[in-house]
Each structure stands twice: as C-alpha cells, then as structure tokens.
Amino acid sequence: MGYVSAVPVPQPRAARAAVSGGGRRSLAAALLLGALGATVVLLSAGQIWAEGTASVGGGSVPVEADGGTVTGVPTALAIVGLAALFAVFAVRRTGRTLVSALLALSGAGAALAAVLGASDSAALNAEAARISGDTAAAVAGLSHTVWPYVTAAGAVLILLAGLFALRFGKSWPAMGGRYERSGTPRAARKAPTTDPDRPEDLWKALDRGEDPTHGA
C-alpha cells in the first residue's frame, strides 16, 4: 500500500499570471472610475442647478443657484471619496476594507444628495428673499437644469470604484510595504567595508558614525 504525499502542488505560472492580470485590471478600473467620478462631481456642482424669477418693485428679475448653493454635500463627499481612493493603497487587510467601504458610501451619499437637490427650491427662495428684501418672497417659474443628474452620475462612478475596491482590493499592492511583490523580505543592505590602510575609507567611516578601528 503506497503513501499519499502531502506536499502542496505549486500553482501554475499561467494561473498566477491570470490572477495578477485580473488584479491590475480591477485596480486600473477603480482608479479611473473614482478619479473620473470625483472630477465630474466637483465640476458639475459648480454649474447652475436651478433657475427662476423673483418679484422686485412690480417687475421680475432672474434668480439662479449653483450646485454648491443648493447643497454642499456632493462636493464634500467627492473630496472624501477622492482621499479614500488613494488611501486604499496605504492600508491593508481590515483597514483597506474599511476605506473601500468609505469610498463606496461617499459615492452613494453624493448621488442621493444630488438627486434630492434636483427638486430643491430652498436656495432659490432664499435668493429671492435677499433680492426683494421680503423674507416671505418665493421664487416664481422654478426650473432645474440637467447638472444635478450629471453630478449624480459622477457620484455613481465613485460608488462603483468603492465596490471594485471591496471586491478586488485584497489583491492590490500597498505602498511602503517591506516585502517585494514575490512576498519575500527585501535583502538587507550590506554595510560597506572599511580598509584601515586607506585614509579615505577611514574618513567615510567617521562620517557614517562608525568606529573604523572596530574589528581591526
């Protein structure tokens, strides 16, 4: 009766390359989606979201409000999401999962705030009251532009980046690791040897704070 060997079978090189390639593709997709989404949110939040008219002295004047006036939530969450996107590479394991979740939640929150802001009239009413001097004034002919929905679309891209990080982030590299990509520790740098018969070596050793006579 023969014995069964418990030696693990090495993973084929092709399989390892496939895993590595999948990690690189998901990493590139998350970076692209997150950066593009944050850029879209930040740019579109500065555009005009709502328009209308306010009655002043028997006439009417146009009133408008940009995204930042309607709600500052999408801009704030886009900045948080952008920071979380790059923080993903500075942490590992549980920390990476938490940061990835923060990235996804930032996108979801920004999208929800943008959609709610698309029907908001408080900012225009406040502007109408300021222009007319009447605190009870309300804007007339209220209309909204497409920019709140563009902002929401950008926020969805941030959400997708977070979902990519949650799903594939474990296979992504981290910055500042003391291990190489193969998983083995980096070789320690060998200290330069000092020749006591060479004056220049003695001076260099003294500059490094070493005792050139040690071990001589």
Concise summary:
Helices cover 55% and strands 10% of the residues. By secondary structure, the protein is mainly alpha-helical.
Describe this structure in words.
With 216 residues, this protein is mainly alpha-helical. Helix content is 55%, strand content 10%. The chain contains seven helices and three strands, in the order αββααααβαα. The chain has helices spanning 13-44, 67-70, 73-87, 93-117, 122-132, 147-168, 199-207; strands at residues 48-56, 59-66, 140-144. Strands 2-1-3 form a three-stranded antiparallel β-sheet. Helix 1 runs antiparallel to helix 3 and helix 3 (73-87) packs antiparallel against helix 4 (93-117). The chain is elongated, with a radius of gyration of 30 Å. The protein starts with 12 loop residues before the first helix and ends in a 9-residue tail after the last helix. The model is unreliable at 14-19 and 177-184 (pLDDT under 50).
